[in-house]
Amino acid sequence: MQGELGHEGVLVNLYYSFFRPIIKYRRAAIGFVILSGFVLMATVGPEVVPLNLKTDFSQRYKPPSFQHPLGTDYGGRDIFQQIVHGSRDVLTIAALAAMYAITIAVTIGILSGLLGGIVDAILTGLTDIFLTIPSFPVMMAIAAVFEVRDPFSFAAILAIWMWAGLARSIRAEVLSLKQKEFIEAARILGLGTSHIVFREILPNIMPYIVINFITMIRSAITASVGIMFLGIVPFKITHWGVMLYMAMFQYGAVYVPEGIYYALAPLFCIVLLEYGAISLAHGLDEIFNPRLKTYE
Questions:
Q1: CA atoms of 201 and 186, how far apart (whole Å)
Q2: How far, in Å, CA of 19 to CA of 23, rounded?
Q3: What is the CATH number of the domain that holds 242?
Q4: Residues 6+ apart with CB under 8 A from 81
Q5: Would you tell me how many other CB atoms lie within 10 Å of the CB of residue 40?
Q6: Residue 293 lies in a domain
Q7: What is the rounded distance in angstroms from the CA atom of residue 137 to the CA atom of residue 135?
Q8: Which neighbouring-strand residues pair with 72?
Q9: What is the pLDDT along the chain (296 residues), one digit of tens a residue?
Q10: Is residue 89 a part of any domain in this protein?
Q11: Is residue 137, in this structure, part of any structural domain at all?
Q12: Which domain holds residue 136?
């Protein structure tokens, strides 16, 4: 019974600390609904919507209809089916890249700010190097040289160039927190570095990490779709970036009026997904940042 009450207490606390502010703040709520819809599409959609990639040129470039909600592509295949199944790859790569980048940034930022001295100098110098290198051309070169073909390695390449800015910000936050009384009290009590990091520092910067995680998902979507749009990384035909590449370069849907839906469908989903991520990130920033807080 106590365990059940404990779980209920956690759920209630989660509702009042996270979901209730989102519901009350419209911009965050809109972003949350949009992202939740795409997550639902990526997780449940492929199990519900069957994918048929068999070509049928008699159905080539059909406009949206009840049978084909988003029309058909150059091979007569249903665009809606490809959008649904491609969403899993898009979100998987973006989420993995964001998780990799967050892990690197938090580790380097906390170590740099907490340890100081030579460790801080080395890690800060490494961070500055990654901040000065133009990321997108390097990502394209690495992806082309190593012939990336799976989402895990592709996400790792994206993450390598996403962590540096957040690491600097976390270092600054840690340097500020080090001067607080509760950190000094933990040191005097001899609670150890692990306690200070996981029980004192991380809970204080967690909202900032969550906001940046969502922002990094948006950045990873842009980078991954951009690289695939240029045809550098071979991937599934249902990935939205590959769909855009096929529509724009391979089969000229942009120049064929009947095939415009093949290009517009993935483009609209990309824009809507990024808008949802931006709205939720900005909304959470205004919710958790006391200087920006606007809701009651």
A1: 11
A2: 6
A3: 1.10.3720.10
A4: 49, 50, 51, 52, 238
A5: 11
A6: no
A7: 6
A8: 78
A9: 434 444 555 455 555 555 666 777 888 889 999 999 999 999 999 999 999 989 888 888 888 999 999 999 988 999 999 999 999 999 999 999 999 999 999 999 999 988 888 999 999 999 999 888 877 777 777 777 777 778 888 898 889 888 999 999 999 988 888 888 877 787 777 777 788 888 888 888 888 898 899 999 999 998 888 888 877 776 788 889 888 888 887 777 777 788 888 889 999 999 999 999 999 888 888 777 655 455 44
A10: yes
A11: yes
A12: 2-288
Number of domains the chain is built from? 1
Per the structure block, which two tokens stand in for 81?
């089916």
Distance, in Å, from the CA atom of 175 to the CA atom of 18, rounded to the nearest integer, reads 26
CA–CA gap between residue 134 and residue 223 (Å, rounded): 13
Spatial separation of the C-alpha atoms in residues 68 and 65, rounded to whole Å: 5
What DSSP designation does 189 have?
T
171, 122 Cβ separation under 8 angstroms? no
User: Residue 78 pairs with which residues in a beta bridge?
Assistant: 72
Which residue, chain included where needed, has tokens 């404990």? 6
Dihedral of alpha carbons 10, 15, 16, 22, sign: positive
